Amino acid sequence: MPVDGPVTISPADWAYDAEVIDAYVRAHPDATPFHLSAWSLGVAQGCGQRAHCLIARDQSGIRGVLPLTEVHSPLFGRALVSNGFAVGGGILADHAKAARALAADAWTLAERLSCPTLELRGGPAPGEGWRRDDTTYLGFARDLAADDEAQLLAIPRKQRAEVRRSLENGLTVDIGDRAAHYRVYAESVRNLGTPVFPSALFDAVLDRFGQDADILTVRHEGAPVASVLSLYFRGVVHPYWGGGTAMARTLRANDRMYYALMCHARARGCARFDFGRSKAGTGAAAFKKNWSFDGAPLSYATRTANGAAPRAINPLDPKNRAKVELWKRLPLPVANRLGPLIARGLG
């Protein structure tokens, strides 16, 4: 696409520009649901953080956008992140000139906000002064099959056997129970050693995405044992916040959940399933590969102020290992009370 003239950057006024930003995002081939105003404003509302967005324009109109979350945490410091609480984001632009301008102005904004770290989770390489990471995370996505039976047959034999067993365990599936999802998710992340997000975050994202988000819950004898909150964007389902209780493994409830979601998403008109990101070499990555999803490297970029160190918020970071093990041992009511106070600042 030709560059028509000088590129100028302006901050978005969400009250007036959200519709324009979303129209640009929905038309851009590299966009994700995490670029939408619903995500930025949902995160700001649910976690008490501040949403920004930079807009690149030339004489022909909008040529790029960069949504950003200003994250404050007494434990993990301050950062400007694109996009906050997401696995994707980064610069969306029509050409390199607009991308460079957005990257430069984002760093200027980070300095003005006293954020020593700026993180871009996806998008084009922003240029010099950035640390690029193309090896830590993998993304997993593939097309859905034509019908439920074909979907089952598309799963490799060993994993398909697990799904078939789950279909024999008396599990039921329903859509829309927010309270059940939060109970299951909170227990799941405590068992993994990480603090749970505020329930207000899930409520805000669901409310702002409307029909483009839902919750699928698997139950055994009426009790929720696995649940996932998913986003729907341009024919792709993104299972995002999901987990299972201690009983889920024995019941194979997570296997039932993901197969049910594939069938449910197809019924909603989706043609593709985005299994999200996992750290390379982990059990989570192996689980997704067992479902016949091949991992593709995700590119993240970080810029830090001179003398500052990048944030260390990954629970798999060796520096956080002791904290993770301690958190696993917390009584669930205590973890659920303390978790949101910590997690709202992770971003």
From TrEMBL:
Q: What superkingdom does the record give?
A: Bacteria
Where does the BioF2-like acetyltransferase domain lie?
158-289
Q: Which InterPro entries match?
A: Acyl_CoA_acyltransferase (IPR016181), BioF2-like_GNAT_dom (IPR038740), PEP-CTERM_FemAB-rel (IPR017469), PG_Glycine_Bridge_Synth (IPR050644)
Q: Name one Pfam family in it.
A: Acetyltransf_6
NCBIfam families in UniProt: pepcterm_femAB
Q: What is this protein called?
A: FemAB family PEP-CTERM system-associated protein
User: To which species is this protein native?
Assistant: Sphingomonas gilva
